[in-house]
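User: Here's a structure from my thesis project, written as structure tokens. My advisor, Dr. K., wants to see whether a designed sequence matches the one we expressed. Can you design one independently, without my sequence as a hint?
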């Protein structure tokens, strides 16, 4: 167990900035997801922590020790790559034993440790098989086993679930979380999948173009995105973004959406500079209430354009004053294409962003 600290970590190759002044503080035993679209620098951050690449500037600490100049082997880090990279001619036992044999441990010690890890990972029955005879999920467990058998202080996993099919991915991610908690090992997992990040991580680091945009616990990342990029990339279905204006009448700021005016209970000092200006508003599909009858004193009238039944929930596309909004409703909501419907928004769940910087305003 160890904490991991990155301070102003920067990686430049030629004139390209691959990682830009990246700072995070990961506590011992935490599972952190590095989340971002392809090309955002996730793999590079993992490689820098592992020591497979060197930083251009900044400092990396593992267990409060500066590791910038330590070789990968001396950093106490285990890494699982996207491709699993098992030795095809070795059995599962030998794949797991390999890192221990390199350390020249005694046969009996190797056997005990391989069996213990295989037990934790639920692969004891596969020890005599070769990788070609394993399913994707089984190979993945062997790859994890090989990374943790040396008892590293930190486990790094580069998109460990991306090569699994959709159903298996959900099963294995639950397993991965269980194993991580059982071992209590500080773990950093990269993923381009927001649902994966939300479901397994204590904290999520959202990256864009080598920069850290937000670092927070999973529920804050979802509920309080600090930037429109976070709002648009975390949450399925995607958040609705609509244009609006801030009006100030007396003491109360009002959000003037095309289809509704909503009183905001925020301090005027916080939002006064936006008076009369256009801003961007984010409305999460799950936070738009939709019914067949109007409720409240300000019903928002909409037309149902499209209904998608998913079983546990229904996704509806609504047109409201010329804008399309997506909403998620309970499956028993009796909505059909062409119906008239009424929307209710809850001020507490509305996100407002500066249109130029993308930063969250309230
Ligand atoms: N060794 C390298 N030299 C130059 N550019 C690189 C190198 N490694 C990665 N890149 C570039 O850096 C960017 C970030 O890559 P990467 O860390 O692989 O992103 P991710 O894992 O988020 O998809 C990409 O644009 C990639 O092409
Ligand atoms: Mg990558």
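Assistant: Designed independently from the structure alone:
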């Amino acid at each position: 167990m160890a904490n991991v600290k990155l301070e102003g970590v920067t990686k430049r190759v030629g004139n390209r900035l691959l990682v830009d002044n990246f700072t995070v503080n990961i506590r011992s035993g935490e599972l952190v997801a590095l989340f971002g679209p392809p090309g955002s620098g996730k793999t590079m951050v993992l490689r820098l922590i592992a020591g497979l690449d060197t930083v251009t500037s900044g400092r990396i600490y593992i267990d409060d020790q500066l590791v910038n100049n330590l070789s990968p082997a001396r950093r106490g880090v285990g890494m699982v790559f996207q491709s699993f990279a098992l030795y095809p001619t070795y059995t599962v036992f030998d794949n797991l034993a390999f890192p221990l044999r390199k350390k020249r441990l005694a046969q009996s010690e190797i056997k005990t440790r391989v069996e213990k890890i295989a037990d934790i990972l639920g692969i004891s029955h596969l020890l005599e098989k070769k990788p070609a005879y394993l399913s994707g999920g089984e190979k993945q467990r062997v790859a994890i086993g090989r990374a943790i058998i040396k008892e590293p202080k930190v486990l790094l996993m580069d998109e460990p679930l991306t090569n699994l099919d959709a159903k298996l991915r959900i099963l294995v991610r639950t397993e991965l979380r269980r194993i991580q908690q059982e071992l209590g090992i500080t773990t950093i997992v990269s993923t381009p999948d927001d649902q994966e990040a939300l479901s397994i991580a204590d904290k999520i680091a959202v990256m864009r173009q080598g920069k850290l945009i937000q670092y927070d616990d999973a529920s804050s990342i979802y509920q309080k995105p600090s930037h429109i990029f976070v709002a648009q990339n975390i949450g399925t279905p995607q958040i609705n973004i609509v244009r609006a204006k801030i009006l100030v009448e007396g003491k109360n700021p009002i959000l003037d959406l095309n289809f509704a005016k909503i009183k905001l209970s925020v301090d005027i000092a916080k939002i006064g500079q936006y008076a009369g200006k256009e801003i961007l508003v984010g409305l999460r599909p799950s936070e738009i209430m939709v019914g067949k009858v109007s409720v409240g004193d300000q019903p928002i009238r909409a037309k149902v354009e499209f209904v998608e039944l998913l079983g546990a929930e229904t996704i509806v596309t609504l047109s409201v004053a010329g804008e399309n909004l997506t909403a998620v409703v309970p499956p028993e909501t009796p909505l059909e294409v062409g119906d008239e419907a009424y929307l209710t928004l809850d001020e507490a769940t509305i996100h407002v962003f500066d249109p130029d910087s993308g930063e969250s305003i309230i």
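When you compare it with your expressed construct, this may help: The first strand starts at residue 4 and ends at 13.
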